[in-house]
Amino acid sequence: MSGPIRHIVMWRLRGETPEERSAARMKVKTLFEGLKGRIDGLTHIEVGLDVSDVDYACDVVLFTEFTDQAALAAYATHPEHLRVREALGDLRTGRFQVDYPIKETGA
C-alpha cells in the first residue's frame, strides 16, 4: 500500500467521577497534541473529546494522517509516541482502531 494513510483511534478511559473522566480526557488530548511537528511523516493530528455522554460512546478520538504506511509503522515505535503511551499508563480501559488509505479526489 502506498500513499497517504489515515489512522483513527478511540479510547474509553478510567474515572470514577465526572471530574476524573474529564481530567483523563484532557490528559490524553494534551499529550497527543504535543506530538505535532515532532514525528516525521505525521502530517495531521487532531484529538476530539466526546460531548454526547451516551453510555456506549468512547471518551476520546485521535485522528491522524501519515504520508504513507511506512510513516505510520515508524510512528508506532517512535520514542515520542512511546513516551505518550507510557505517560498514559493504564488510563485506557478500551481501545479501537481503524487505518485506511486516503483516496485522492482530484478536486
From TrEMBL:
InterPro entries, alphabetized: Dabb, Dimeric_a/b-barrel
Organism: Bradyrhizobium hipponense
Top-level taxon of origin: Bacteria
Name of protein: Dabb family protein
Coiled-coil annotated residue ranges, if any: none
Annotated ranges, domain Stress-response A/B barrel: 5-100
PROSITE patterns, A to Z: S_R_A_B_BARREL
